[in-house]
Amino acid sequence: AWAEVLRIESDQLEVKGVHVFTRWLREALRDGVPMDEIVRSMLTATGGAYAVPEANYWVTATSPKVLAENAAQTFLGIRLQCAQCHNHPFERWRMDDYYGFASFFTGVKRKRGEDPTDMIVYDGGGEIQHPVTKQNAVPTYLGGGPAEVKGTTRRKAMAEWLTKPGNPWFARN
User: Sheet containing 119-123: which strands, arranged edge to edge?
Assistant: First the structure.
């Protein structure tokens, strides 16, 4: 079931990526690695997707919007898709929440490795613009305030917040 949720499938990843990611996940679950550690490892992974299997999480989607939607739904049980275009009429999520959360994912970069089927995941620059205000969105935790990202990467700040024991969405989900 986790393979489906994480989109570990050959139409998203190269065959070798599917195998190494699946093996890594299966071994982590078998060895009793806590879920917060597994998720934090995936969300902060850098390097070649074949050498660092959890980096394959970043190969399955490349758009900051899709990555934010996937992370919110998979790890927090929150559907953000509607807030991309309008403030949600029945939920608490607004466009500001959507673009603030999506801005955590803008710095994720990918390039081909020596093996042209391998993808190297690394942190770089990038911004996402709020479509109404036309301003770059500030990394903001869902249901919380702006993130402090000085001295760390956006992904690390987001992963630490997401997997904190006090995060009610992660714990419940």
Answer: 47-48, 119-123, 108-112
